Task: structure prediction
Amino acid sequence: MKKDHDLIRQFQSGDQSAFDELVKRHLDTVYRFFLKITTDEMDAEDLAQTVFIKCYKGLKRFRFDAKFTTYLYRAKVNTANSYLSRNKWRNFLHLDQTQEQTYSKDDTPISKSEIWDAVAKLPTKQRNVVMLRLNQQLPFKDIGLMLNMTEGSAKVNYHHGINKLREWLKDEYEL
Amino acid sequence: MNFDERLKQAISVDDASIDESRFIEKLHDTQHQLAIKRARLNSSLATAAFLMVFGWASFSQLDNGIYEYVYDGLYTFEDDYDYYSEFDSLEYDLYLADLALYLLDEDDIWEVMEFFEEVEYDFEINNKEINL
Result:
């Protein structure tokens, strides 16, 4: 099986099928990443398309300094950030009135949209760390590498982010 | 269950599958649209650059020369006849003297006087035109 970097080299030399192979290889993880953020499968698919189009444009200048997965994580995080901030404005303007059913008992599932609405309000660093940790359960060391920060900084940002989320969600759920 | 676990549970996805071939087909469509957009952009830029260069070249060719030509024709008195050099020249003086002597030989003094008056008159007229 060819490595990601080999496929990228092939793509850079004009082989479109190499890019398709790369998409097939990573499509599932990208799609699941966005499925956890959105409440709609179509939205998740559109966001996955956006990520792969970014890759299509960017991979022609890929310099092989880092793993493709790192590049892909950054693209996913940036796309998710855009989506969350767009949703934040949509909610602010009350364009989307559909609300998921919520419970106010201990151990009942917290509404997914409320979680991401709250995550969208976090400062950028905290938001990115929380997003990767919650969504992908990545170790702090890997998160630090992907977001250009130390492992300690990733831990601290996560801790602050989670505390804020707890603070914001505690009124509706028994936390 | 702690807070982290509850969040992870809330966003977890049990079964998720996507139609790979349909997704790639859609991706190809988007790539095709991108290529068309890029081609259109390149063509627009090339056209704009050509129009700018062509326009500038035309403008620099059509400078104010034509207007100067028109104005010169309408409003300026242009004459390359050099009256002063003509009058001052020795040749012209001799020519006038010869004409005067010829008229004197004809025994018509008034004609000579008229001749000199005419020469002087012409000089005044021409002089006024030059000073216009």
Notes: Residues 68-92 of chain A form the longest helix (25 residues).
